[in-house]
Design goal:
The protein has about 150 residues and is an alpha+beta fold. Helix content is about 20%, strand content about 25%. The chain has one domain. The strands form 2 sheets. A 4-stranded mixed beta sheet has the order 2-6-5-4. A 3-stranded antiparallel beta sheet has the order 1-3-7.
Length: about 150
């Protein structure tokens, strides 16, 4: 399966989840590495856009395509998620939920619904999993952010 992420070009080849480890995210606490990806390029763009201010968008962005084995994906049903998982900003319950899964040695990839488009999915890659070496960068290309998408 191919998954996608849009990020600063200097982090385009990072499969260790350094950004998420430093700053945390919806599904992880600080100090827990995680690579946030999406099931489509369009969702990756939407997710990036809602999580950045227009003034903070760098000129050097990349679209990274990563190949992951389908067999490593743990699919979270909506019933498993904390009741407030869609809340913005991200509640501590989602950070704790995701962090527990990422710390579990048996979970390589966690598939969760997008809070922006709940019928589509994001995939969290766990760099600590024993089979994380099976995550392969398929391609990296420059990505030009079209500012018409976000004006503020």
């Amino acid at each position: 399966m191919l998954v996608y992420r849009i990020c600063r070009s200097k982090y385009a080849r990072d499969l260790e989840g350094e950004g998420a480890k430093l700053f945390g995210g919806r599904w992880n606490n600080k100090s827990i590495g995680c690579v946030y990806t999406s099931e489509s390029r369009a969702l990756a763009l939407i997710e990036y856009t809602v999580n950045v201010n227009i003034d903070d968008i760098p000129r050097a962005l990349s679209l990274t395509t990563i190949e992951i084995p389908d067999t490593l994906v743990y699919i979270c049903s909506e019933d498993e998620l904390p009741g407030n998982w869609k809340t913005t900003p991200a509640p501590s319950a989602t950070k704790e939920f995701g962090s527990l899964l990422l710390k579990a040695a048996h979970v390589a990839v966690v598939k969760v619904p997008s809070t922006v488009v709940p019928e589509e999915f994001n995939l969290l890659l766990n760099p600590l999993h024993a089979k994380s070496d099976r995550f392969k960068i398929y391609s990296v290309r420059d990505f030009i952010f079209d500012v018409r998408i976000k004006t503020t």
